[in-house]
Amino acid sequence: QVQMTETGGGLVQPGGSLRVSCATSGLTFSDIIMGWFRQAPGKEREFVAAINTGGYTYYSTSVKGRFTISRDNAKNTAYLQMNKLRPEDTAVYYCAAELSRGQSSAQYPRKNFYTFWGQGTQVTISS
């Protein structure tokens, strides 16, 4: 049974930093592509970042230069380090996973690319 659990969300002031984690089980972590998405109230779930099995990283334009995705295969965990946070970063953050089969990275930003999802963690940026 696949389980994915996000932790680390919370309330942060604008300009601050936060790291969210996604612990997985039931998958061979080193064989999966990990993605982070977010969904603000009344908006569509949107792509934030992805990291493939080779450690290559991909970001949306809205977070590039501020957020960093990483993975620790020994801990079966992916991370999203978020710096210079803005009120518009407020959302529920979800991690997602898909088995790597040589797919094009052009697919990584698509929600329907990923088979497995976590339950989400709330990140709120407010003074």
What does the model show?
The chain has 127 residues and is mainly β. The protein has no helices and eleven strands. A hairpin with a 5-residue loop joins strand 5 (46-51) and strand 6 (57-59). The protein is globular and about 45 Å long.
User: Helix proportion of residues, in percent?
Assistant: under 10%
Number of strand segments: 11
Mean pLDDT across residues: 97
Overall structural class, as computed from helix and strand content, comes to mainly beta
Largest sheet: 7 strands, mixed
What is the strand content? over 45%
Low-confidence regions: none
Number of helices: 0
| N/C terminus separation | 40 Å
**C-alpha Rg (nearest Å):** 14 Å
